[in-house]
Design brief:
Strand order of the largest sheet: 1-12-11-8-9-10
Helix content: 40-55%
Structural class: alpha+beta
Number of helices: 10
Largest sheet: 6 strands, mixed
Strand content: 15-25%
Distance between the termini: 9 Å
Low-confidence stretches: none
Number of strands: 14
Length: 376
């Protein structure tokens, strides 16, 4: 099976999210934290009600959940829900409706309860709950405008349709502005490339080029272990435990930021330089069950790389071809087409009976490219 993703090479309007750091005042932080708690509470309570209704044979829609939210806010016990903007609470119900829709369509598992510690704290505001004018953003019931670090300006004439405020485990505050912008495709080119994802080299191209694996997690593993040991020595629930947890979270955040930055640069370069990019449909979740390779596969982030290639090709007028995961790319000779019966993982080079000498990964990338071009 071969999947192909492509668009016409014309300027198009797409939804893009622009993320920025911001630094709230103590009063703003308190109000936003209260909002995060209310959003989590409403989501979990609505999930509980819908789960109970399904077990009793009844159906519960978004409209029913919205009516229940109104009743909750009128009760004396849950009157605290009125202290925050109603829009993030309604958005939480919409997100729950989407989660159930994905579950019923068998695209995802049953929705889970949001944890205070394990879930990213966030709140979503639509147009009626925020005001944006010339780089000044104000949220409903949050008070003065947010102190945003505009690391890059929004495109001229663009107005956000949705604003999402979040706080990560490291204590950093972010605001994401969802905007509809015009994207101009890259200039057409005749170059095509096959990409073989790996661990020793993160990406091997059919041209013979190898992109090294930075191994961001491995580079910070010593600091992670030290931070984890320090956390384990603190009493749960104490102030020192909270500080140690944030120190560990900052190390993980640093790794994630570096990994994402590297993948953005790699995928943008591949999309800019090639009209067609061919990759394999890797079963990442299945390979993660191998306890010897799980950490390295997670650090490589192949799924994230594929996701970036997919939407960037759609934006910039390129074609992404995904070949079947069972295609024998490594065992097939790219010169004569013969397929070996077996090829152990430790064999990095091999010689075909036809006389061709192959680098395992380069040969796989060339076969991936040939299969994608032949069957698209």
């Amino acid at each position: 099976m071969v999947c192909s993703y492509s668009v016409l090479a014309v300027t198009q309007s797409v939804q893009r999210s622009f993320g920025y750091r911001f630094y709230p005042t103590p009063a703003q932080a308190e109000q936003l934290n209260r909002t995060f708690g209310c959003v989590r509470f409403v989501y979990n309570k609505a999930l509980e009600e819908r789960t109970r209704a399904r077990r009793s044979g009844r159906s519960m829609t978004y409209r029913d959940s919205s009516a229940a939210l109104t009743a909750w806010k009128r009760s004396a016990e849950l009157a605290f829900l009125n202290e925050v903007s109603c829009v993030p609470l309604q958005q939480a119900l919409r997100h729950l409706q989407t989660a159930f829709g994905n579950f019923f369509a068998k695209r995802a598992e049953h929705p889970r309860y949001k944890s205070r510690r394990r879930s990213r704290a966030s709140a979503e505001y639509t147009r009626s709950a925020f005001r944006y004018t010339d780089g000044v953003l104000s949220l409903a019931k949050v008070g003065e405008p947010l102190d945003i670090v505009w690391s890059r300006p929004l495109p001229a004439g663009v107005t956000p349709s949705t604003v999402t405020v979040s706080r990560d485990a490291a204590g950093r505050w972010f605001v994401c502005l969802l905007c509809r912008v015009e994207v101009r495709p890259f200039e057409p080119t005749r170059d095509v490339v096959g990409v073989d994802a790996g661990i020793a080299a993160l990406a091997v191209l059919s041209t013979g080029e190898k992109v090294g694996n930075p191994r961001h997690e491995e580079a910070e593993r010593r600091r992670m272990r030290a931070a984890q040991r320090a956390l384990s020595r603190k009493a749960p629930g104490s102030s020192n435990h909270h500080k140690a947890r944030q120190r560990l979270a900052r190390v993980h955040a640093k790794v994630a930021d570096r990994r994402r930055d590297f993948l953005h640069k790699l995928t943008t370069g591949l999309v800019r330089d090639n009209q067609t990019v061919v990759i394999e449909d890797l079963n990442c979740s299945g390979m993660m069950r191998n306890h010897r390779l799980a950490r390295a596969i997670s650090d490589a982030a192949w799924s994230e790389m594929r996701s970036m290639l997919q939407y960037k090709c759609a934006w910039y007028g390129r074609e992404l071809v995904v070949i079947d995961r069972w295609f024998p790319s490594s065992k097939r000779c790219s010169s004569c087409g013969a397929v070996r019966e077996s090829l152990p993982l430790r064999a990095r080079t091999w010689t075909c009976p036809c006389g061709a000498n192959h680098d395992r990964d380069v040969n796989a990338a060339r076969n991936i490219l040939a299969a994608g071009l032949a069957e698209r």
